[in-house]
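Sample entry as discussed:
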Amino acid sequence: MKEFLHVLYRFVPPYKKYLVLTVVFNILSAVLNIFSFAAIIPILQILFRTERATENVVWLEWDSGDFKEILANNANYYVHQLVGEMGATTTLLVIGLFLAFMTFLKTGAYFLSSATIIPIRTGVVRDIRNQLYRKITSLPLGFFSEERKGDIIARMSGDVQEIESSIMNSLDMLFKNPILIIAYFATLLVISWQLTLFTLLIVPLMGWFMGFVGRKLKQKSIKAQALWSDTMSQVEETLGGLRIIKAFCAEEKMNTRFDKINSEYRDNILKVNTRQQMAHPMSEFLGTVLIVIVLWFGGVLVLNNMTLSGPTFIYYLIILYSIINPLKEFSKAGYNIPKGLASMERVDKILMAENDIKEPAVPAASTGFNSKIEFRNVSFRYAEKWILRNINLTVEKGKTVALVGQSGGGKSTLVDLIPRYYDVQEGEVLIDGVNVKDMGIHDLRSLIGNVNQEAILFNDTFFNNISFGVDSATREEVEAAAKIANAHEFIMASENGYDTNIGDRGGRLSGGQRQRISIARAILKNPPILILDEATSALDTESERLVQDALEKLMKTRTTVAIAHRLSTIKNADEICVLHEGQIVERGSHDELLARNGYYHKLHDMQQV
């Protein structure tokens, strides 16, 4: 219960007005329910011609004795008057109509209490999804290198759905059932405190047993949700690697692998749902046992003419039966909520994840890019493994510096330190003498444009992909950027021009076309610093020529840091740095490095073969 209340404390406060309304309507529903059932007593008295219904009853003043006795007496006085004036059958009809009217008001209040809780339930789920999405977009790239995409998708879909169906659908437990239980219990005490105290001896045992089963359910739910993540990860990997699966005739292997994970998930969710289905029959059985025990004890009180009359005891049983349904819902929620809390734990692994890339408390004033980028004694590691060691490098404004070397040598990591996708453990990265950690993150990244080896595009139109991040871009500006990137012609040749959808990740385009769209996006952003991460390495010769031409136009008047495997693309760089095992082992121009006959010369000769 503590965990459940903590979840509500985090997400419900924005919906306080709906919370107040649902509490008010629940109280009204409970009160109307109690008074509507009270009409059963005179109906039974008339039908069974009890002594109370036929004796002469006199009116008592409200301050003349016990309130409970006066209320019963005066209500009976009015019934006696009605019987005397209209007859027993007409009186039955009047009381019946009164019961129907009170029931109409009660059900109306019940509906309104449920209707006012729906905005809370749906709003909280929306807020959790929004918070998850915002957290995903704010977390550093390093977080996602440790997580599987399928697992993150599972948490945002399956786990949030489980929170909605388990926790949010159990809000009635907190805002409706306790009110009904308290109101009905108070009524039971007023009718017969002896019988109610006897009842209370039994209820705690039932509650403990249901809570014990609920705790076991949570443990199973956590494992089941983890297996659901494995299933989603398998689907995500399959969609991403479908071409390879077909090329290696591995369909059956993947089918077997998926069936194993899916069957394990099914076995666990089977146990969870089976145990969950115990809630209704168990509460039904325990409720019946409770009624039987109370019926026996109450019968003793009635038959021995102690504190209860027959009609009043039946009214007591009706109220007691009414309290059982909220208690059953309480127990049902006790089974559902642990499943939702298990999912909330998994969602919180994202929501509560530490963001190592901190925004400075007082960011340095942004003055654009005026002088140079400097790496000063920079060292960086993932976990315990050092990727970069003692890097010292200066990139002057307007110059092009190229990074070459073996795969895994730290080239991409080095350029990722400039926009603070990662933070260094030792040393500093400075722009115009200001540590990038002291700059506002958005101010810093607005200075930088990226063109990567894999063009990252969205399932949207040409126009929206090129203008991505530049909300104020006009059609003319987008077309101008596309022309510089050698993309205008093939865009106009598509069915709807710039309004043509390019498919998932640009799947309707060739590799060279995707790359030129990516370059057009960088051109439109017009950043003073440009990072090229092997932008032409995956292209054929003709596409490479077109992309290289577009890159040269983009690089004019810009400060560029380029990662290249094809040395032919960076011959004209102002400086080339050779990285080997995380350190700069050579630097200089293309001709200077060839003349040294070192590591660069070796790379050059390998590509000439």
